[in-house]
DNA sequence: ATACACCTTTACGCAACGTAAATGTCAATG
DNA sequence: CATTGACATTTACGTTGCGTAAAGGTGTAT
């Protein structure tokens, strides 16, 4: 039995375009081309197409299907196993994404009270006041009144969405820091990523980033026991590790 | 504070290409363009970018992000909720896919014994023999010896992979049939899909498909109580429902 | 002859950029 | 002052798996 594109497509439940595409990428070539240039498929091609569609339904890429069906000695089981791994990984990512969306929704719902301008302003003011009480003297001594006031002003001008974002970023920094500490290498990829995230986090408060200031903050995290306590609370040595990572990140580790 | 593409990209952790792209699609336009044609971003753009990246990390499409960030009165909560629904749906699909891959792997592992040529040949021969015993007389009377022999020959020439596939397709037909019966409409979309799947299933056995033959098989499913029992076992009335769906599918429902 | 259903190739479109290539600008250096 | 190197610009192809024209040839029936 011989088939043209349409007949085969009708039989397999796919479009003629798909068949032409499969021919184009070399995954299913017709048995022959007739005198008018028509693609003619035979039984062997029907069977091969069924194999192709089988793997396609499992979400295998055509690229991989090509290898599977063109090489009869190909280890399908291994290919499917690897494919499964990829799908599992994908699902893990998706779960994470969903969890994050849930968190964000919850955070936004809490933020509804923040959307109330007065409340949110008061909320931010309280955070600034608390911060001033806790660290005010140190940071004003270190950075000067002007810097600190500018930072506070920037914080006060934050929208609710930005506040949500900075909160999340702060949490992410801690989380990634923990993972980075497990590697034990402040110069490693993960630790440098933490430093980078920390820089971005700072940028929410600073209107002007410099490596020097970043390194200065890092040193303060260790020198000031209240900052140290904040980070070490998560894991002992976290403040030191973060400082070292940031010093390397900023390139300020050699000129101590 | 003003930023060029690179400065802003560095700060936000994205590429300059991305920033140009965001400008191109109108989701983040620079505050102004300087005399040399450089894009210059201000604080407002930094903040907006942070919003954009926030939603991007949650997997929201740029198209949707555009609506969210450009319209301050936009209901973010609703958007995120809908996004969540889409993700959940995606995960459901993925779970299904993984389950199918698992099934296929299990089936392939069983097939390892089938890959043993002798065993598989014997296996297929047994199925043919069983089939001949059960339905041989009826189908030979209905379709003639030649047809039946050709069908058997095609079955015998099946590879293990094809056998796995036809088994799966057969199971899928039953499953979808069940769902279609719940709708109660043999002319409905789902029932017609069942008829289509059934046609594809037949094509594994037939080397020549005709609507007439398809309709004939459908009628036989009801007339022969052993076939009827096979389908009705799943749900009473399944054979009749399948027949009606196929008759409509083949367009043979009016010329009875 | 012509209508109509089929076939062909070529090619744009989708999403979110990566990755050149070709060219212009800015600041610093020999 | 010319050159260098790090920036900037635009244009455009590539990615995946086809859908969807457009422009034209083929096959068969009326």
From TrEMBL, chains A, B:
<keyword id="KW-0010">Activator</keyword>
<dbReference type="GO" id="GO:0003700">
    <property type="term" value="F:DNA-binding transcription factor activity"/>
</dbReference>
<dbReference type="GO" id="GO:0003677">
    <property type="term" value="F:DNA binding"/>
</dbReference>
<dbReference type="InterPro" id="IPR009061">
    <property type="entry name" value="DNA-bd_dom_put_sf"/>
</dbReference>
<dbReference type="InterPro" id="IPR012925">
    <property type="entry name" value="TipAS_dom"/>
</dbReference>
<keyword id="KW-0804">Transcription</keyword>
<feature type="domain" description="HTH merR-type">
    <location>
        <begin position="1"/>
        <end position="71"/>
    </location>
</feature>
<dbReference type="Pfam" id="PF07739">
    <property type="entry name" value="TipAS"/>
</dbReference>
<protein>
    <submittedName>
        <fullName>MerR family transcriptional regulator</fullName>
    </submittedName>
</protein>
<dbReference type="Pfam" id="PF13411">
    <property type="entry name" value="MerR_1"/>
</dbReference>
<dbReference type="InterPro" id="IPR000551">
    <property type="entry name" value="MerR-type_HTH_dom"/>
</dbReference>
<dbReference type="InterPro" id="IPR036244">
    <property type="entry name" value="TipA-like_antibiotic-bd"/>
</dbReference>
<keyword id="KW-0805">Transcription regulation</keyword>
<keyword id="KW-0238">DNA-binding</keyword>
<dbReference type="InterPro" id="IPR047057">
    <property type="entry name" value="MerR_fam"/>
</dbReference>
């Amino acid at each position: 039995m011989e088939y043209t594109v349409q007949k085969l497509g009708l039989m397999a439940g796919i479009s003629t375009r798909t068949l032409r595409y499969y021919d184009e990428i070399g995954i299913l070539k017709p048995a022959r081309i007739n005198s008018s240039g028509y693609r003619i498929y035979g039984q062997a091609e029907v069977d091969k197409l069924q194999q192709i569609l089988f793997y396609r339904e499992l979400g295998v890429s055509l690229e991989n299907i090509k290898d599977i069906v063109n090489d009869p000695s190909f280890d399908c089981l291994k290919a499917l196993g690897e494919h499964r791994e990829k799908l599992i990984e994908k699902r893990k990512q998706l779960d994470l994404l969903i969890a994050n969306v849930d968190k964000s929704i919850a955070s936004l719902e809490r933020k509804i009270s923040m959307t109330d301008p007065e409340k949110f302003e008061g909320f931010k003011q309280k955070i600034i006041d608390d911060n001033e009480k806790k660290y005010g003297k140190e940071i004003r001594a270190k950075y000067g009144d002007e810097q600190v006031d500018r930072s506070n002003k920037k914080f006060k001008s934050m929208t609710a969405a930005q506040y949500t974002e900075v909160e999340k970023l702060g949490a992410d920094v801690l989380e990634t820091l923990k993972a980075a500490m497990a590697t034990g290498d402040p110069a490693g990829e993960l630790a440098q990523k933490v430093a980078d995230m920390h820089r971005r986090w700072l940028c929410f408060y600073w209107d002007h980033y410099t490596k020097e200031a970043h390194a200065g903050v890092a040193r303060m995290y260790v020198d000031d026991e209240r900052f140290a306590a904040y980070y070490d609370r998560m894991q002992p040595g976290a403040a030191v590790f973060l400082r070292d990572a940031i010093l390397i990140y900023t390139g300020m580790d050699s000129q101590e």
